[in-house]
User: Fold these one by one.
Assistant:
Number 1:
Amino acid sequence: PSLGQNGPARNRCHTLRHLVSVVPVHLAATAIAVGVVFAGLGAAQAAAPSRVPDDQKPRLVAMTDIGGDPDDQQSMVRFLLYTCDYQVEGFCTGFGHGHYKNTRPELIRKAVDAYGKVLPNLRKHRADYPSHEH
């Protein structure tokens, strides 16, 4: 298809101009104001996360079949980013769904070691991230 004067790009621009002219100005202004209010609330909440004393944080043991699929390792990294919200007592690894018959605890160690490398930066945002040696 042509992208010249009569092509899809021109039609798309015409459609956008039509939509802009159809939307009443006061409706657009209201939508922008609502967006600004929600953005402000989100920023205020993000700026002051609630701190729970360590002895009141939920205790947990993370169980994983890490090593079977790439998303297992990605999930472990994401989990480690939330360790400031929990008391992590330990990790257990096993195999799931009969796919694999070996465990990969070295992948947990690798993720925890990587967490240790970025820990100083994480603590700039929240001081209650636990040590990777914990």
Note: The chain has a mean pLDDT of 72.
Number 2:
Amino acid sequence: MSREELLETNERLRAVRIRLEESYDTAKKALVTLMNKYGDSKSQRNVFNRYPMLKLMIKDVIRLETQYWTLVEIPKQEKLETVPAFVLRACSIMEKSQKSGEGVKTSAKLAEEAAEKRERMERLEMMTTAQIEQENTQMINDLYRLLKKYTGLRNLIRELKAEYGNSKIYPIFPRYTMLKDMIKDIMHDPDYMEVCHERVVTPKYVARSTKPSHSRGTAALPVQDYELEAITNLTLSNALRQLASLVLISNQIFTELNKELASVSERSLGIKQRIDNLSKRVEEFDPKQVAVLGSFFFHFVHLFSVGMKLWSSDVARIDETTEALVY
């Protein structure tokens, strides 16, 4: 690529990154706000009061999916498509889709953007072609990672919208549980856990000096208040984010296990009390009482049989007397 093409690509990548960061921040903020509202709603013990709260907080998120101008559309990467080709194709698609309100800019805003662009061009003019190409490569890699994270959050919002729509056919009690499960699924999803605690920092780009350096290859080189982050540092940050996700998952698992152990211990205490009561009843058992009760029962049966015989004889005499009177 010529120097002019490299400069044009640099400007395209920078503009697309700014727009993508806006959509990424919007999606991330919506999901983080959803989790905060869900945590606050736990103080509401009444199901009938909490149910509309859950519906409202989910609607605030899926509204982003219905407002097509709020979140940009990102194409899927083909299997054999390279990272630079995919990023440039995504840039072309995002450039064609104009965001609502982008065409309305004040003169002050236009002057500010022109001044910023002039400063960027002056900085790039002081760099060699190799340095510009290296900066473009770094911007492509950073934009690719941002595209992947944004796509993960966008898919979560899209799935939440579909599940919420499907749950409308159910009555309040099963749907109440379904709404809670929808939010919990997002809370434990790796795509959300990777970004929920990060702070958005706009990266600074400069190319590394082409001159040999005696410092370590992993160190970042500051040039004119700009800094290019080392690849090893980026890998380490990704590893730390994954480790933080694993820690959150393990904490959640341990919390659930503690709850299960507490419930098991309560049940075991109840069973132990029943066993103790049964053992006391066995110790207090007296066979003589059973014998007395048994003899009393047989005596009652004997008296009942004698009474029945007397009653039958009286009935027979009454029948004989009645027949004599009739005849």
Note: The longest helix spans residues 231-283.
Number 3:
Amino acid sequence: MNLVEFRTLLRNYLNGQQSPQEDRRLDRWYEEMGADLELSEEELTAARKRMKAVIDTRTQEKKTLWLFTSTARWVSAAAGLFIVISLGIFWSMDDSVTYTNTSSKPVTVSLSEGTTVEVNPGATLVYSKSFPSDRREVSLAGQAFFKVSKDPSRPFRVYASGTITEVLGTSFWVRSSEKQLQVEVRTGRVQVSQQAKLQPISVLLTPNQQVVVNLRTQRWVSGLVEQPQTTLPSSFSFSNAPVKAVIDSLEKAYHIPVLLAKTPLERCTFSGTLADSTFYGKLELLCKTLKWSYRIEQKTIVIDGRPCPTSP
């Protein structure tokens, strides 16, 4: 369950408008989250005040007893509020912004601390007008590209489809749908973890790496992105250069490990220009010239073939 879904469920709950199915989803989420909470005294005090204000407002305005029909129900609602507040993903209406891109083109949203988010059509981004001093947290339903402003003292977290993507300063894609979540890193390092689990799956991604999560089976598959992007300008022109130097240039530009399957392959040299604009195009040209082949093993490229003849 992502933040947008949870906020809707919680509002319906507090208004007494939730369906039995929504009721079960909220209770199930609370049961999963409850065991992991660690609240400071400051957070507990703030949570108590906010929870009391919400409950007092509802009971004064509507004077209904739906919230107090059973002790368990009241405790569940109250605990649920504590959980959401403790995670920093339930803000007061004055401080929370929910933006949905209803246009046919991506729209850039600028956050208060310098981060920019390119929100794709149909996507919804929920964020705070001003982040607290120790964290920056947003929620996403749909697709968006993030360019996160560097701030080592305040991690930036994106909640989407039951996962948490955490960075300090980087750029990355998050693509969230009902069936699948995909996180694709352009620059920097990104930590993607399960939300609301006692022993969550966690994956560390570097540039041109991705993780794809099947939300139904919770199967996580990490590997290389389909079209790696270079982060450094380079001519990739070589004249009788050792193959190892060519590979070092590719690794430096794309941050993707490239290994030679056999040590003797290092004796080979390469002359030419790897003019193809794509990473895999460059690999194809290199291997074709030397009559080699390559394969992808998770997040690594492995090159294999016959060693070059030694000079007399």
Note: The two ends are 67 Å apart (CA to CA).
